[in-house]
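Folding Query — how this chain folds
Tokens — whole-number codes for backbone shape
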Amino acid sequence: MPNDTPIVLGLSGDVLVAVERRQPRPPGPYRRLFAVPGARAFTAGNIVARLPMGMFSVSAVIMIAGQRGSYALAGAVTAVGLAATALVAPWTARMVDRYGQARVAVPATAIAVLGSLGLLLCVHYDTPDWTLFAAYAATATTPNIGGLSRARWAHLHRGDPAALHTANSFEQAADELCFMLGPVVAVFLCSALFPEAGTLVGAALLLTGMLLFAAQRATEPPVAARAGRTASPVRLPGIRALLAVFLATGAVFGSMEVVSIAFLDEHGGGPLAGVVLAFQALGSCTAGLLYGRVRPAGSVTRRLAGCLAAMTVLMTGPLLAATTGSLLALAGALLLAGMATAPTMVTGMTLIQRVTPEGSLNEGMTLAVTALLGGIAAGSAAGGRVIEQAGTGTGYLVPVCAAALALLLCCAGSARRVVRP
């Protein structure tokens, strides 16, 4: 019997009996995480607002292509929206850091919702094509919702790296879940109801969720006092190298999606593309939740290098599965490859939080997301180019090479990175 186990003495008849009273099991990391007052409330609002992030682009493509009969136009409109987001999002995040989440995120979300509704009306009333680009570009003001939530966790658990690790793991799992369910919900709404239903429901969810999130003022990070004009986090030592890692990592995701869709279409699995690709998101979501239960050890930079090394190895799975021509084998390989995604993103975001001052945290994380989106666009283009030149099987070399590049950039940039304790 352990020495620290409480003993209770009692009488049973004429015999003194020792009874062991077991200590209650300590709560798990996720129970401790959500035991913080207000954590569940702001998380609920954040999830509601985050689900449309996986809905809008799919809904826009279905709506525009269905009404205008042109996938080229639909793709061009969403591409312009992505480019506008890359330009506007860091500025929006900088305003959040300067004036507070509620004061900036709510009006910015309102502008984005008006942009979505404007796109819906332009498509419905057959206005000129340029109006579609203008309306969808207005959605670029949508705040980085995941970044807002991560900033709250960083404020609530400052000085507690283990709790922050669990929080980042949960946020990454939530990202994967929303981006996995979002397109499915959008396709269902647009096909079962009417083409504009996905955009309409997504706009309502975004505004409702953001209002619920912003209403939780007790957990909102305070605005840091600033002495004069503050430089952008991109000027900080080592952060440019870290953004380059995010850029290369985004290329892994973008190329994997394009190549997988082409492979499935070539082998008669086009209608199952969404289901097969969901295996990668499922693997990432599962790994993210499990990773959050593990207490991290060693330096963050070394952990990131280890995660990128694992990603490089696991990305060879789809390459090998493609040689078999089996959709089942590809789904299994994508499930395993996805398991490296969440740990890599969790560790990368943790490192961003370490190198970015608290007063610029939203901007720092938004810059990382912007780099990731840029990488996704570049990876999609590179994957499509290789497919045209060498075939879909060879196309799976692109995510392998992109993961290896991210690993090399991480190792090369670690010497220049200054990490706060």
Summary: Confidence is low (pLDDT under 50) at residues 417-421. The CA atoms of residues 44 and 282 lie 21 Å apart. The domain at 232-421 is CATH 1.20.1250.20 (Growth Hormone; Chain: A;).
